[in-house]
Amino acid sequence: MKSTMGHIVLLGMNHKTASVELREQLALVCSNQANPVQLFPYLGSVKELFFLSTCNRVEILFTCQNYEDAMGEVKALLKTHLGVSSACLGQFEANFYIHKDEAAVRHLFRVASSLDSMVVGEPQILGQIKKAYREAVDHRTVGVILNRLLHKAFSVAKRVRSETMIGSYAVSISYAAVELARKIFGELASKRVLLIGAGEMAELAAEHFLAQGVCHMVVANRTLERALELARRFRAETTAFEHLPDALSEADIVLTSTGSPIPLLTYQDVKSRMRKRRNKPLFFIDIAVPRDVEQKVNEIDNVYLYDIDDLQGVIELNREERQKEAARAEHIILEEALKFHDWLRTLDVVPTIIALREKADRIRKKEMRKTLAQLPSLGERERQAIEVLTESIVGKLLHDPIVFLKKKAGRESKQVFVDHTQQLFNLNEDGGLPSSSGCNQK
């Protein structure tokens, strides 16, 4: 898929290639305080940049002319500007995957369509990509290529959702968490649930707990207004975020999904409350990255801690049916990737087409000035009529050569036709040929 416009490269790690410990390390260094899109000016060889960070993946998508130089800059950015040590970077690199050109396009389409998710078909990932795209737009790190590619990813995801039943068989991370609780406790109707965090994950979990008959839910969130909003929707109570350890005394199931960079509940927090609970079983589902519950908590008697990686077994539900729909979705993705490939190849002829139009318009305007200077008595209406006439003549004359170039854009021999056109119209010597790196926003 490489054209004279350069390469499309995707560098990342996800739940398939790296443990939750490694992903949370990278998610931390790529936090809002040091987001790669904010460091775009440091990347001289990177033309456009998009960064995605979720609980299951961290990915950097970029375009470049020189692959080796750009990749070196991206890795150097991780090492220096994001504060990753050489040893840590080496560990990261061992778990990175790299997709280039057409493979990068297909991967992005698969991610947007939720075919690469831990739970195939879950809808949250598309919203996360759109949010990351808005941030890239705000920082002006996306241009011609990535703008087109990301919008195409949105439409591909929509097509997959509408033309397959992949969503019908999907289970979200939150649903998988509730299913795990049901398998451990049997019925959930009599259980008390503590939700820590009031984001989308907690909201989805609350819906699933209600569907399982849970009547007693408590919500704790840093922002009380959001906790109250969620509590009203799901007939729940609220508790002060500052008193989280005390809320453990009455809970049977604790589902936590905050964005805290450090654990909210420590070994001592939980250990000290178990005596008051008389060692009644306490079940934690920590679906946050970084994790909200200290891993050592799992060593306490009658305390069971599961993190996001532990849900992998639960999401095997409906796998066969989901995989059938995924196969149909893969066909759509392949088809759309080829269409994007065709569009990308047309960019090779775009600079020549632009130069041809600009040269023709310069000649038209120059001759117009000469002619109108000899006809001072012409009124404004007549001048506008001549302007329209000359524009129409130039447009019709250029129509056939431009259509010819666009048709040849998909051929391997397209450069021959581009060279002939540039020679025929003397575009190079006129200095009218624009730079082929038109996607650079810097």
Q: Mind explaining what this structure looks like?
A:
The protein is α/β, with parallel strands linked by helices. It has 3 domains: 7-169, Glutamyl-tRNA reductase, N-terminal domain (Beta Polymerase, domain 2, 2-Layer Sandwich), CATH 3.30.460.30; 173-316, NAD(P)-binding Rossmann-like Domain (Rossmann fold, 3-Layer(aba) Sandwich), CATH 3.40.50; 395-405 and 414-436, no CATH class. Helix content is 50%, strand content 12%. The chain contains 15 helices and 10 strands. It has a 6-stranded parallel β-sheet, covered by helices on one side. A 4-stranded antiparallel β-sheet has the order 2-3-1-4, sandwiched between helices. Helix 13 packs antiparallel against helix 14. The protein is elongated and about 100 Å long. The two termini are 24 Å apart. Mean pLDDT is 84; it is low at 435-441.
Structure, briefly:
50% of the residues lie in helices and 12% in strands.
Strand content: 5-15%
Tally of separate helices = 15
CATH class of the largest domain: Alpha Beta
Strand order, biggest sheet? 7-6-5-8-9-10
Q: What is the CATH superfamily of the largest domain?
A: Glutamyl-tRNA reductase, N-terminal domain
| Biggest beta sheet summary | 6 strands, parallel
Helix content: 40-55%
Average pLDDT confidence is 84
Spans of 5+ residues with little confidence (pLDDT < 50)? Answer: 435-441
